[in-house]
Amino acid sequence: MASSSLFRSLPISLLYCILLTPIPLYFYWGTVDQLGPDPLRSLEHKYGELGLIFLLATLSISPLFKYAKINLVRYRRCIGLVAFYYIVSHICVYFFLDIGLSIDILLSDLQKRYYIIAGFFAFITLIPLALTSNNFALRKLNIKTWNKIHSFVYIAIILSIFHFILMSKTWTVELYFYTGITTFILILKIKSTKLYKKLSTYSNADISK
Amino acid sequence: MKVLKYSDVTPQNLYLNRRKFVEALGLTSLALVASPTTAKQKYSTSAKPNTIDEITNYNNFYEFGTSKTDPAKYAHSLTTDPWEITFEGVAQNKKKYDLAEILKGKAIQERIYRLRCVEGWSMVIPWIGFPLRDLINELEVNNNAKFVAFETVYRPTEMRGQKRATLDWPYREGLTMDEALHPLTFIATGLYGKELPNQNGAPFRLVVPWKYGFKSIKSITKISFMEEQPYTTWSSENPREYGFYSNVNPNVDHPRWSQATERVIGEGLFGKRRKTELFNGYIEEVGDLYKGMDLKKYY
């Protein structure tokens, strides 16, 4: 219990520092030839994968609380924003380094390449969530509207997984793994919404968070 | 049944010479580098080769896993000696040859070739080996053969990636007879003047520099000459995305990504993309093979 309470008292700012450190660290490793023969692709994939991991972590917080009684709800905003920053970094590597700031390639990719279209819309979907993640927006917005906006995260995760599937040549272990976890979380979510309607009396406490 | 060892069936001088022979390839290649009048100059690119570190640590060899670093980690488990190659579609009675028999008498040379992967990256690799035509010319190939099919070894106990159905094993590739007999089409048995590392397709692999890398099949155990176009792994896996020909072509995109440019391995994080060339820059040598062919249709 001691470690658990220690974890619970972890200051949010420290958590941000820890979770975001890999962004500059991987970039630095990339510049000093520590990311293998293809550092650009490594960096791009690392940021993308970590973005996906943190997105899934954010989505796990409700089910963890509900089914395992582990309460990490107070870290959810931080983890969600961290996911967003990784995704922004991922897109920056694509735009600045991979396609070398070429608007032509960007536009043609957005017309022709399904995985880029899926990834782009996943990112667009997450922007309103990031913008309304602050206390000011929480106070200003009606809780129902706020919840609706933040349920976009489920659209984003589906698009992200499609982005991953569409860019892959075959079904790798990683692809099965992330698609499996996403499916599992989505099933829990769907189950909980039905339950919510039927048994709203005792479950609304943890669900609408 | 008594299991025959390689040393039981191979004359000792040949058995011992095998390693020496492979070592000698290094010297041969040095000799070639030193002499400007050899075939090397004719077919090799003047581009700077990638480092051995890059070439041996960034591989697509799904038999050992789907990550680029898996082959370097796991390919050591493959036994490449003894190695037998079976021929089909040949008239001669003897169909199975030990690698040493095949290599005997072959003029070993170095070829510095561009390699363009269908994924959109490229390298420059100094191979050691001999033109495939030198081997084909020694065989009594059936007259009606129009295609050559190649097969990678299937050995899940030694190739951990084959335990999963990532692809329909064994890996298979093929060429038309004209392509196979082209002087650029090469069998590599070495790299950088040394024995071919396992992750690069030891002990015997194909190198077709004007086609996407997946056509250059690794660790070959079977070569068949046939009338019909053979089954090829990637084009069967996804016919819309991978064709039988798979010639490097910047004007025909992969359905999911562009083939107009390539990332040059070794250029680092801030490296500039290179414009991909038709037939990977070997248009002068191979352009005639595809004269009048609709390259958009036969991708």
CATH homologous superfamily grouping of chain B: Oxidoreductase, molybdopterin-binding domain
User: What is the residue-averaged pLDDT of chain A?
Assistant: 90
List segments of chain A where confidence is low: pLDDT < 50 over at least 5 consecutive residues.
none
Under CATH at level 1, the class of chain B stands as Alpha Beta
- Alpha-beta classification of chain A: mainly alpha
Oligomer: heterodimer
Cα distance spanning the termini of chain A: 24 Å
Helical percent range of chain B?
Answer: 10-25%
CATH names the topology of chain B as Sulfite Oxidase, Chain A, domain 2
What's the story with the biggest beta sheet of chain B?
Answer: 7 strands, mixed
The arrangement of helices and strands of chain B along the chain is HHHHHEEHEEHEEHEEEEHEEH
Number of strands of chain A: 0
How many strand segments of chain B?
A: 12
Describe this protein's structure.
The complex is a heterodimer of chains A (209) and B (299). Chain A is mainly alpha-helical. Chain A has helices spanning 2-8, 12-20, 22-31, 39-68, 76-98, 103-112, 114-131, 135-140, 143-150, 152-167, 173-198, 200-207. Chain A starts with a helix and ends with a helix. The mean pLDDT of chain A is 90. With 299 residues, chain B is of the alpha+beta class. Chain B has one domain: Oxidoreductase, molybdopterin-binding domain (Sulfite Oxidase, Chain A, domain 2), CATH 3.90.420. Chain B contains ten helices and twelve strands. Chain B is globular. In chain B, 41% of the residues are buried. Mean pLDDT of chain B is 89; it is low at 1-22 and 26-40.
